Prior knowledge:
The chain is of the alpha/beta class. 42% of the residues lie in helices and 16% in strands. It has 13 helices and 13 strands. The protein has helices at 14-17, 25-29, 48-62, 73-76, 85-100, 116-120, 129-144, 157-165, 177-202, 225-249, 296-310, 329-346, 388-399; strands spanning 7-11, 66-70, 104-110, 150-155, 207-213, 216-219, 255-258, 262-267, 277-280, 314-318, 350-356, 375-377, 384-386. β12 (375-377) and β13 (384-386) form a beta hairpin.
Amino acid sequence: MFPPSFVFGTATSATQIEGGCRSSDWHAFARQPGRIKHGDTPDVACDSWSRWREDVALQKSLGMQGYRLGLEWARIEPRPGEIDRAALGEYRAMLGALKDAGIAPMVTLHHFTLPLWLADEGGVLAAGFAQRLAHFARIAVEALGDLCRLWITINEPNVLAAHGYLLGVWPPARKNPVLALLAQRRLLAAHDAAYRALKDARGDDVHVGVAHHLRAIEPGHPGSRADRAAATVFRRVFNDAFAAGACAHGTQDFFGINYYSRDVVSFSARHAGELFVERRVPRDAEVSDLGWEIYPEGLGHVVRAWARRSGLPVYITENGIADARDDRRGPFIVRHLAELERLLAEGVDVRGYYHWSLLDNFEWAEGYEPRFGLCAVDYATGERRLRDSAHLYARIARERTVV
């Protein structure tokens, strides 16, 4: 059983659902030929900037108790030092409506995107980036802190560093392992600065963490010393570097985990640009529409390990599946929540689960093709339609147990 205090919720990010913001680096990046599948852009997305009241009503109809949403930094600070108070007012209206609906908000400050002016200065590698994020954090919490207790400073810093500076598939589209490691360090410094800004402004009225993307990682051939070494390197660089640093700095009040899949890794001389690590999906594995392995046991392994390492309460800040037919999402939810029930029975302090995502949305370089939503979105009309898996999730949240 899930205790009465356990939060069942959903998660989104600003750029992926809002639309209407033309002052971000991703708006510019999506206009470069070949960057986004099918030439998709986040210009309209789910039109949630105009339709957020409808989205709040959807969550209320499902009996959700929590909602993780993002603030679009580029919308709030479109030019350096220029704060759009009307945009902040709209976010304040969103949070107020959530509270009125009995849905506790969790706000994310930085979810991959940057104001274009800051990207032009060097993005996360720019001089003073940490101070810039801390300033934005202070502006946001002074305007919204009375309506929101849970705050995420940065979403998946390791993913941003890898995709933007190692693989080169996200802005700024660099391919340099040294820059990828430097980006993680700069993001850690920015998290520390933002954490302190939030706490200085609101003290213990706010609880602050990071949404860490953590993967189950195993060697392709456990008997191979090279594969074991590759798994160790990948785990330390991808899973551990930022998360362990944030724990060591003491700048988290809770530990957020985004969990999606497992990587089976092998040493490969052909993958020198990826630290000699080749990742693969086991043959005959059950997979999502994106080819990601469905591996619920990994959630248990990851949460158990990091609850112990961090000594902090845990929130599952993202967990979901690309499943356009909605024939795997229901079992996916059941099996992952069953892992959490087992952890709770063991005494692990897991406080909430935010399913990714409330809505189908703009899935970065994959465009609109992947369908992660509990709610299907018709991108031509903006119409929302609850999938069967949404009703299953609502029943679990209501009955507080997995059948």
